[in-house]
Amino acid sequence: MLSSIHLLQPHLLSLLRFVSSLVLFSYGTQKILHFPAAASVPPMGSLSWIAGLIELTLGFLVLVGFQTRIAAFVLSGLMAFAYFIGHAGKSFYPAQNGGVAAILFCFVFLYLVAAGAGPLSVDALMQRNRDAA
């Protein structure tokens, strides 16, 4: 049983990359494209708006698996920054300060820096093309 689960690891890596970046990408669409409708939209040029622009653009790159390690590195830093700027000052405990998502995103994207995009990605497709040439 464990050997068959081990065979799924590369595909589950791709699934982790896809789902986590899709969720982060949705934060960017809400801040920048106003979809889905948000209770409040950050003013253009504000720190929250710039974060939304990064979430939108780099979230999409990680979503499709293009330049994943670089994009995930920047997103991991963005999420660490978001935690310390927006959440850590409210309380020490993430469950109380609302920073659970920021911490999880930070470490998932940090893992993707090391692990890469997985087999179901533009990066993997480009690598297969280079290897075939």
UniProtKB/TrEMBL annotation:
Transmembrane segments: 12-29, 49-66, 73-93, 99-120
Matches recorded under InterPro entries: DoxX, DoxX-like_oxidoreductase
Membrane topology qualifier: Multi-pass membrane protein
Keyword Magnesium: no
Location of the protein in the cell: Cell membrane
Keywords from the UniProt entry: Cell membrane, Membrane, Transmembrane, Transmembrane helix
GO cellular component: plasma membrane
tRNA processing recorded as keyword: no
Family: Belongs to the DoxX family.
Alphabetical list of PANTHER family matching this protein: BLL4328 PROTEIN, OXIDOREDUCTASE CATD-RELATED
Protein name: DoxX family protein
Species per Swiss-Prot/TrEMBL record: Rhizobium esperanzae
